[in-house]
Amino acid sequence: MKRKMNAKKKSAVAWKGRIEKTNQSKIERQTIRQHNLKQRKVGGAAGANLSKKRISEDAEAGETKRRRMGPHSEKSRAGFEGKKQGFINEKDNKRSVVAK
After folding, report:
1. Nearest to 60 by CA among 81, 35, 84
2. Global model pTM greater than 0.85
3. Which domain holds residue 20?
């Protein structure tokens, strides 16, 4: 009987440890979720590629993207520099060439 009681006490301690571990991991996951949601609200590079497992240090630093320098600094992306002129084979288009 004494052995059975000692086994129950040992089991109760182990169970309490498991419950504490699950609660701790639950709190950790919630903090990661809250951080990811906050970074997503910020948007841009800070809101991209967020970790499901950990909070990255570089996201915490709040680094911003460097501004583009040079002749293409006002352009958004390569290949999209100008405004659309219209279709090449359109008759009313200024770019269309009529061969005579």
Report:
1. 35
2. no
3. 1-39
Q: Judge whether 79 lies within some domain.
A: no
Residue 46, judged by CB atoms within 10 A of its CB (0-12, 13-18, 19+), counts as buried
**Residue 95 falls inside a structural domain:** no
Model confidence pLDDT, tens digit, residues 7-46:
999 999 999 999 999 999 999 999 999 988 888 888 777 7
Question: Would you give the DSSP letter of residue 65?
Answer: P
Question: Is residue 31 situated within a structural domain?
Answer: yes
The dihedral through the CA atoms of 18, 21, 27, 30 has a sign that is negative
Domain count, the chain: 1
Please report, in angstroms and rounded to a whole number, the separation of the first and last CA atoms in the chain: 111
Query: Which segments within 33-90 are labelled E, that is strand?
Result: none
- What span, in angstroms and rounded, lies between the C-alpha atoms of 65 and 96? 40
